[in-house]
Structure formats: C-alpha cells, structure tokens
C-alpha cells in the first residue's frame, strides 16, 4: 500500500470584512485596516448623553475640525495595539539600558553642578507637563470622530504618561525621591514655570478637543527642540553627557509623534469638503495659542538660562519663527499679516 501526501489550498470565500471590500476592493486588508477602518459607531444610539443633550454619544460636532470621510486620515506608522506595544517595549528597554549605563559609570554625579541644577529645575518638572498632555490626549480620544484619529490620540495618551515615567526614572537616578519632590515644587511655585503650567491647565478646559490637541502640539514644537535638541547640544559641550544620553530617547519619541500629527493636520487642510473651514479654524487657533505658547516656553528658557546660560530663551524665538514658517507652508496662517 502506498500513501501520497498532497497539499491542498483552500481559497477563502472572502479576503476581509465587507466594509473594507466596499472601501478598498477585494484585496487582502492589513491588520491595521481590519482593526481600525470603519470601527467608529455611527448609528443606533439609544439616547443623547445627559451631560450634553445637544450631541449624540459619538458626534462629529464635538469639534469644529471635520473630515468628509473620517478615514481619509490613517496613521503613517500603521499602529494598532500589537505593533504599538512592541515598539514602545523596545523604546523603554533601550531607555533602561541607557539609564543603567549612566548609573554604572556615575555620569550624573560627574556632571557639573550647574547642569545638575538645570536638569532638576527645568527637565524634571516636565513630567507634570506630560501628565497634562496625557489628559488632553485622553479627552481627544474620547470625543474624536473616526477610529483612526481616536486610536492615535489614545496611543499618544499612553506615550505621554510613559514620558512622565521616563523623567521620573531620571529624577530617581539623579537624586532619589527628593528630586521628584523638588521638581513638583518647581512646577507649582517657580515663577518662570508658571506660564507653562497655566498653559497646560487652560488646555484642560478647552471645549474643542481638536483645538486643544493642536494647541498642545504648538507647545510641543517649542519645548522638545528646546530641551532635547538645543540643550542636548549645549550639554555635550558643557560636559553633561548624561543629559544628552537621556535627551536622545525623548527626541526620538517626538520625531515619531510628529509623523501622525503632521499627517492629521495635512488631512484637515486638504479635505475636499471642509478643508477651507478647517484651515480657518486652525489659523484662528494658531493666532490665539501660539503667542501664549511662546511666552510660556520663554519662561522655561529663562529657568534654563538661570542655571546654565545656553541662550535658551533666545532659541525659543528662533523655534517660534521656524514654526510659523512650517504652519504657513501647511496652509495655517499664524499671524494677522499672513491672513491679510
């Protein structure tokens, strides 16, 4: 008796979900598309929320910024749960190895005293800014319309609390729990940090989630270049290599964050139905929030210069000028002259 082994291929009756077939045709969908596209609840809501009966439970009108098709925006990173968790686990492992290296060689102890003061008085208090940014992102995740946007905001909220934890670990390595207590007092009481604290708190009560997220991004685009690029370069020249080693991880995270934020801004402005109105809303928001962000981050720069004169306050004006150019290139007019 002989046996013959054969491979039989059973073709699936359909390649993916019907909603994706209607949108993309019969091609196999990616895991990101299956986990994200057309997931937004659109109908069969039982009643309007008692806390806001003017809106449905999920409602496009929670923001003035709209997309004709909420799924015209997709995350360039194609992040859903599995790849996001994998990427961030690698990021935290890499940061842990960097921190182990710094502690084994006593690099924090070897830093000039002025740079230790700068790190404690300026960098560590930003864990509280990241905490505020997490709440802004959570609010956006709740009220955004379209699962691609909501998903990015949800993951950004996890990132923000992760960034706060990274800074907390730096504080513990730098001076134990006392460093974290001093950082909290600086955030609550230091005169130069109060404009930024007020900025973060005002974002928490902004009713339009998209405007709040955009205003948060304006502050990010001043803070991250200041702390993790300008001070990074100055730290290398000033013998504070440990600061530079830490900065590389947060600078890397910000570059990753920019990918989806820039894509979302471009989608809003380019929308065929709402693009012009979206650009007007974003321009109004930029004219309202960017001057406040500049004032707030200048205070952060003054606090840094008080510890080590690196020209941080002057650098903020350079970053702000560059940011206005980037916004103008994206179709967002941040000054009255540009609007004329």
From TrEMBL:
Q: What class of enzyme is it?
A: oxidoreductase
**Which domain of life does this protein belong to?**
Bacteria
EC number per UniProt: 1.14.13.227
Instruction: State a single Gene Ontology molecular function.
Output: oxidoreductase activity, acting on paired donors, with incorporation or reduction of molecular oxygen, NAD(P)H as one donor, and incorporation of one atom of oxygen
**Chemical reaction(s) catalysed:** propane + NADH + O2 + H(+) = propan-2-ol + NAD(+) + H2O
Q: Which UniProt keywords apply?
A: Monooxygenase, Oxidoreductase
Full protein name = propane 2-monooxygenase
What's the source species for this entry?
Carbonactinospora thermoautotrophica
């Amino acid at each position: 008796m002989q046996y013959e082994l054969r491979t039989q291929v059973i073709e699936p009756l359909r390649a993916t979900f019907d909603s994706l077939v209607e949108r993309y045709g019969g091609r196999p969908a990616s895991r990101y598309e299956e986990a994200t596209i057309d997931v937004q609840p659109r109908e069969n809501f039982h009643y309007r929320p008692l806390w806001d009966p003017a809106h449905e439970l999920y409602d496009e009108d929670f923001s003035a910024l709209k997309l004709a098709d909420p799924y015209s925006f997709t995350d360039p990173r194609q992040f859903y749960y599995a790849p996001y968790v994998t990427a961030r686990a690698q990021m935290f492992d890499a940061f842990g190895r960097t921190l182990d290296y710094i502690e084994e060689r006593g690099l924090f102890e070897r830093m000039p005293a002025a740079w230790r003061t700068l790190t404690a008085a300026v960098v560590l208090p930003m864990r509280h800014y990241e905490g505020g940014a997490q709440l802004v992102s959570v609010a956006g995740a709740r009220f955004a319309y379209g699962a691609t946007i909501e998903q990015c905001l949800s993951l950004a909220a996890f990132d923000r609390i992760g960034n706060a934890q990274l800074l907390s670990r730096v504080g513990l390595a730098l001076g134990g729990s006392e460093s974290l207590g001093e950082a909290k007092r600086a955030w609550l009481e230091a005169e130069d940090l109060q404009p930024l604290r007020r900025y973060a708190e005002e974002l928490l009560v902004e009713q339009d989630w998209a405007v709040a997220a955009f205003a948060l991004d304006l502050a990010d685009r001043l803070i991250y270049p200041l702390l993790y690029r300008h001070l990074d370069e100055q730290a290398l020249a000033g013998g504070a290599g440990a600061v530079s080693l830490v900065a590389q991880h947060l600078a890397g995270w910000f570059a990753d964050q920019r990918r989806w934020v820039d894509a979302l801004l471009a989608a809003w402005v380019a929308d065929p139905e709402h693009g012009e109105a979206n650009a007007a809303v974003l321009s109004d928001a930029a004219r309202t929030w960017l001057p406040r962000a500049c004032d707030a981050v200048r205070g952060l720069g003054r606090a840094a210069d008080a510890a080590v004169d690196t020209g941080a306050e002057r650098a903020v004006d350079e970053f702000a000028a560059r940011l206005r150019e980037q916004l103008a290139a994206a179709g967002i007019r941040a000054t009255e002259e540009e609007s004329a």
